[in-house]
């Protein structure tokens, strides 16, 4: 690792845990959202990464959705937090058990309102009950339906079935978002070369009715963004 990479890794670790501890002190959804957004703004600014949002007018003020997004990098949740800025939406992320136990992200994930997904569990009742309770309280839900980061050369990998089940069970309209930029390449450019004025573009799609069974979630997503 270069000196710049080491410095950035230490800074990101410090910042992530700092905000994880701040998040631990509140259960207020407005404050949780504010702190997560502040964290995203501070870290992306340090990385010299700006965010351009296309179609932000499609997000209804104070709306409640299931947000689905493609996923290439650890900074993708930050990009989406920026995209929702000023829309009075309090969305909770679905986080894998591995993230909860992560040395780097564990404190942040456990305190930021994430809903735990344990793929090894034979009983998924508590997971779906957690989502149902969050939706009842007015939260939106955000998920990466690919399940894991896409490290291939294709723009999208296969969707897991869970996101469509979440939408139907909770009668949530689906709002697809597509991060057009390969965020992993942008992140590496920042860390390795300290490049200035980097930018990520994210596009907001049109609503997908959770009752529409004419296409799978993956088919509808690909159709929206011509993938």
- Report the uncertain regions: none
The Cα radius of gyration reads 17 Å
Please give the CATH architecture.
3-Layer(aba) Sandwich
Overall residue-averaged pLDDT value? 93
Number of domains: 1
Biggest sheet architecture: 7 strands, mixed
Q: How many helical stretches?
A: 9
Give me the strand/helix succession.
Answer: HHEEHEHHEHEHEHEH
Shape: globular
Task: Kindly describe this structure.
This protein has a seven-stranded mixed sheet, with helices on both faces. It has 227 residues and is α/β, with parallel strands linked by helices. The model has no long low-confidence stretch (mean pLDDT 93). It starts with a helix and ends with a helix. The longest helix has 22 residues.
How are the secondary structure elements laid out?
Layout: H1 3-24, H2 29-46, E1 49-54, E2 66-69, H3 76-83, E3 91-96, H4 97-100, H5 106-111, E4 115-117, H6 125-136, E5 140-143, H7 162-170, E6 174-179, H8 183-193, E7 198-204, H9 217-225
Parallel strand pairs: 1-7, 2-5, 2-6, 3-4, 3-5
Antiparallel strand pairs: 6-7
Helix pairs in contact: 1-2, 2-3
């Amino acid at each position: 690792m270069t000196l710049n990479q080491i410095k950035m890794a230490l800074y990101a670790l410090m910042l992530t845990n700092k905000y994880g501890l701040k998040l631990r002190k509140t259960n207020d959804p407005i404050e949780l959202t504010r702190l997560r957004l502040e964290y995203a703004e501070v870290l992306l600014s340090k990385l010299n990464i700006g965010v351009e949002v296309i179609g932000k007018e499609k997000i209804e003020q104070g709306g409640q959705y299931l947000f689905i997004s493609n996923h290439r990098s650890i900074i993708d949740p930050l990009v989406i937090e920026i995209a929702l800025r000023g829309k009075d939406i309090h969305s909770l992320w679905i986080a894998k058990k591995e993230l909860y136990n992560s040395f780097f992200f564990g404190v942040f994930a456990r305190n930021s309102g994430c809903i735990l997904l344990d793929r090894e569990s034979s009983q998924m009742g508590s997971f779906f009950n957690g989502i149902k309770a969050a939706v009842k309280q007015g939260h939106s839900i955000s998920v990466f339906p690919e399940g894991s980061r896409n490290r291939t050369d294709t723009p999208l990998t296969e969707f897991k079935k869970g996101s469509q089940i979440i939408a139907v069970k909770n009668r949530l309209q689906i709002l697809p978002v597509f991060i057009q930029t390969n965020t992993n390449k942008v992140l590496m450019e920042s860390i390795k070369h300290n490049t200035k004025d980097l930018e990520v573009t994210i596009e907001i799609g049109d609503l997908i009715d959770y009752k529409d069974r004419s296409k799978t979630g993956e088919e509808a997503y690909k159709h929206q963004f011509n993938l």
